[in-house]
Amino acid sequence: MNILYISISGNTRGFAKKIADYAQAQHESNPDFPCITLKEIHENSDFEKETQPFFTFVPTYLEGGNGVDNGDKEILTETMREYLEYENNYAQCLGVIGSGNKNFNHQYCLTAKQYAQQFGFPFLEDYELRGNPSDVERIYQKLVETYQK
After folding, report:
1. CATH no., domain 1-146
2. pLDDT of residue 85 exceeding 90
3. Which distant-in-sequence residues (6+ apart) come within 8 Å of 149 by Cβ?
4. What is the Cα–Cα distance from 59 to 126, expressed in whole angstroms?
5. Strand, coil or helix: what is 41?
6. A Gene Ontology molecular-function term (predicted)?
7. How many Å apart are CA 77 and CA 15, to the nearest integer?
């Protein structure tokens, strides 16, 4: 399984690595469980046409406000949106996983929800900040379930 992600503060990168490590351990105990390949997208990335299905992991960085009637403008993660738009890469995306800080109420995971709405793929799961071990297990199971459909 492939995961494309963008990480600003390192939280998403750290979570993606945890889920890849978890997948490797699951695969070693049972080869039916798929491993994960990670690909970080950043502003210096060379854009390329994606030819294999993937999942997108995106944190939430928005411009102020409350996420309802203002403060819903994406900042810092636009490169991922541009990558998904490039050569219609979004068509290979099986779904998006969002992260954020629950203290921000309606803004929590809003970027991932906006991606799902714009590109027409499902918002699959969410986790807060760097996630915890139960998030890793839960989200891996959701990825496997979605991938195998």
Report:
1. 3.40.50.360
2. yes
3. none
4. 10
5. coil
6. oxidoreductase activity, acting on NAD(P)H
7. 17
What is the DSSP code (8-state) at residue 86? G
Label residues 108-143 b or e (16+ Cβ within 10 Å = b).
bbbbbbbbbeebebebbbbbebebeeebbeebbeeb
Q: Check residues 16 and 70 and name the one with the higher pLDDT.
A: 16
> Is there a contact between 93 and 56 (Cβ–Cβ < 8 Å)?
yes
Confidence band of 55 (pLDDT split at 50, 70, 90):
very high
Whose tokens are 């459909």? That residue is 149
Asked if 125 and 138 count as a contact pair (C-beta separation under 8 A), the reply is: yes
Percentage, residues of the chain above pLDDT 70: 93
Single pTM value for the model? 0.93
